[in-house]
């Protein structure tokens, strides 16, 4: 095994093109567990922590680009207002020490169905920026996940950033686990209201082989809000709408039984999370006051 | 691989580090600094917590090469000579140490908390220490110790 330190993105991409089997390392919070326990032995490590192009976030025209190497701790402290859903999700990851190192880029590359950034990225219709020596492309995050721990990234590509529109309405993220910290989710759910385009976004975690949206639930709620004129004249959400939204979210899940929970528990819990979080977002939308768990 | 890094203010060199080993391994096995503990090697317990360029991290999750040219501060670097840091003295005085295995990580993490937030609430203390497991104390004495350390730092 060798250790290569990339000083620039070009440098990193050239190495990845020559050696597609090299393991990029950012925060190391997934990779080092696997190496420490001898689960993997990559031919080499490519350290991305000194690549300036990955290290920061920026905003342009209402869209925020978060470099793949920005740790959760910075998303929480710097982007809570711009991207509340992703900041809330980041806040539930692991522990302070892990959040000081772990990155959204690493979370995406691992592509675990339980990755906590994923539901929030889905609800915000984020795009994943991928780069190689062949060029740069952007992919809707929903198309990025292709299977359990599999993604659309090509062997010579690096994840360079995610792009998300700055929030125009309330967003929520909620996660079921055995503790308040250091838990892989039993299931997780994120919802975002996008009043600028009269749309609703959702994301489900630990609910299927890949993180996924509940498209029918999104369309149902957006349709109800539009047909009742509630985007412009917010009134309390009818109980029947909240209930139906929860049912449609639960129906979008295809969970499994595993050590963390059963499929039926997950489906049930997703419905509960969906009802609660949509209630909180709607309260915030109609009153301007944020609620949280 | 040869590694150069600053640990507790002094330059150190580790020869023949394996490329896949962790900063924790470098500290304990190559630099003779066994203060940082290895209890899980998977980021779960926090007993290996050190400052990496002033940011507390699990040193078992940092690849050796990622520490090249960086400044590390371990539990051995908290005291000023023979004078314990207020966090260390408060752990002693509060009886927050039993077997002591979790203590080095808790000390570094609590040290950082009080640096950033001199008057932490109980909720903030719990949140900050959520990644540090203790199998002995039941955490109450640790809470006492961190409260005491914050008070002592405020008057010093
Ligand atoms: C104790 C503990 C608790 C955890 N709890 C949670 C949790 O609650 N929720 C959660 O979602 N996750 C959790 N994790 C998992 C982990 O912290 C996250 O997945 C984190 O986002 C990984 O980011 P990283 O930068 O540390 O990735 P790394 O470990 O550096 O890399 C992870 C993978 O991504 C690849 N990679 C990294 N960056 C890039 C890039 N830019 N382009 C292409 N490939 C790349 C690496 O080669 C590797 O395969 C936990 C981990 C630990 C150790
Ligand atoms: S040994 Fe590093 S977190 Fe447990
Ligand atoms: S004192 Fe023994 S683990 Fe904390």
TrEMBL record, chain A:
Transmembrane segments: none annotated. InterPro entries: CO_DH_flav_C, CO_DH_flav_C_dom_sf, Diverse_Substr_Oxidored, FAD-bd_PCMH, FAD-bd_PCMH-like_sf, FAD-bd_PCMH_sub1, FAD-bd_PCMH_sub2, Mopterin_DH_FAD-bd. Keywords: FAD, Flavoprotein, Oxidoreductase. Pfam families: CO_deh_flav_C, FAD_binding_5. Residues 1-169 form the FAD-binding PCMH-type domain. It comes from the Bacteria. PANTHER family: XANTHINE DEHYDROGENASE SUBUNIT C-RELATED (PTHR42659). This is FAD binding domain-containing protein. It comes from Prauserella halophila.
Automatic annotation (TrEMBL), chain B:
Residues 1-78 form the 2Fe-2S ferredoxin-type domain. Keywords: 2Fe-2S, Iron, Iron-sulfur, Metal-binding, Oxidoreductase. Pfam families: Fer2, Fer2_2. CDD domains: fer2. It comes from the Bacteria. InterPro entries: 2Fe-2S-bd (IPR002888), 2Fe-2S-bd_dom_sf (IPR036884), 2Fe-2S_ferredoxin-like_sf (IPR036010), 2Fe-2S_ferredoxin-type (IPR001041), 2Fe2S_fd_BS (IPR006058), Beta-grasp_dom_sf (IPR012675), Diverse_Oxidoreductases (IPR051452). The keyword rRNA-binding does not apply. This is (2Fe-2S)-binding protein. It comes from Prauserella halophila. The lineage of its organism: Bacteria, Bacillati, Actinomycetota, Actinomycetes, Pseudonocardiales.
């Amino acid at each position: 095994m060798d250790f290569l330190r990339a000083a620039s993105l070009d440098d990193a991409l050239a190495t990845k093109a020559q050696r597609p089997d090299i393991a990029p390392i950012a925060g190391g919070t997934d990779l080092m567990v696997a190496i420490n326990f001898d689960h993997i032995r990559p031919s080499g490590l490519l350290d991305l922590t000194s690549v300036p192009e990955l290290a920061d976030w920026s905003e342009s025209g209402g869209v925020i680009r978060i470099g793949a190497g920005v740790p959760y701790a910075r998303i929480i402290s710097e982007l809570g207002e711009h991207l509340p859903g992703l900041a809330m999700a980041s806040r539930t990851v692991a522990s302070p020490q892990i959040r000081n190192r772990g990155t959204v880029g690493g979370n995406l590359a691992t592509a675990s169905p339980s990755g906590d950034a994923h539901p929030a990225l889905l609800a915000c219709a984020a795009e994943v920026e991928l780069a190689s020596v062949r060029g740069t492309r952007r992919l809707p995050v929903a198309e990025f996940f292709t299977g359990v721990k599999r993604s659309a990234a090509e062997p010579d590509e690096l994840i360079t950033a995610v792009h998300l529109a700055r929030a125009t309405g309330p967003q929520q993220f909620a996660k079921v686990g055995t503790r308040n910290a250091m838990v892989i989710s039993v299931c997780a759910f994120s919802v975002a209201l996008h009043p600028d385009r009269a749309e609703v976004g959702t994301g489900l975690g630990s609910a299927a082989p890949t993180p996924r949206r509940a498209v029918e639930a999104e369309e149902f709620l957006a349709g109800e809000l539009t047909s009742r004129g509630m985007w412009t004249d917010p009134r309390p959400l009818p109980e029947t709408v909240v209930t139906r939204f929860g049912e449609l979210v639960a129906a979008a899940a295809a969970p499994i039984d595993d050590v963390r929970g059963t499929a039926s528990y997950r489906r049930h819990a997703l419905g509960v999370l969906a009802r609660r979080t949509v209630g909180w977002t709607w309260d915030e939308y109609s009153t301007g006051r944020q609620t949280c768990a | 691989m040869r590694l150069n890094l600053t640990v507790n203010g002094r330059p150190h060199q580790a020869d023949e580090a394996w490329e896949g080993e962790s900063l924790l391994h470098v500290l304990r096995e190559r630099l003779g600094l066994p203060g940082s503990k290895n209890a899980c090697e998977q980021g779960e317990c926090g007993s290996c917590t050190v400052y990496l360029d002033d940011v507390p991290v699990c040193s078992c999750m940092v690849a050796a090469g990622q520490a090249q040219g960086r400044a590390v501060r371990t539990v051995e670097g908290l005291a000023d000579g023979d004078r314990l840091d207020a966090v260390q003295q408060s752990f002693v005085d509060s009886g927050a140490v039993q077997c002591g295995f979790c203590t080095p990580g808790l000390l570094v993490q609590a040290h950082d908390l009080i640096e950033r937030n001199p008057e932490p609430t109980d909720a903030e203390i719990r949140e900050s220490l959520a990644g540090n497991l203790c199998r002995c104390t039941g955490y109450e004495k640790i809470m006492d110790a961190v409260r005491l350390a914050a008070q002592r730092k405020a008057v010093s």
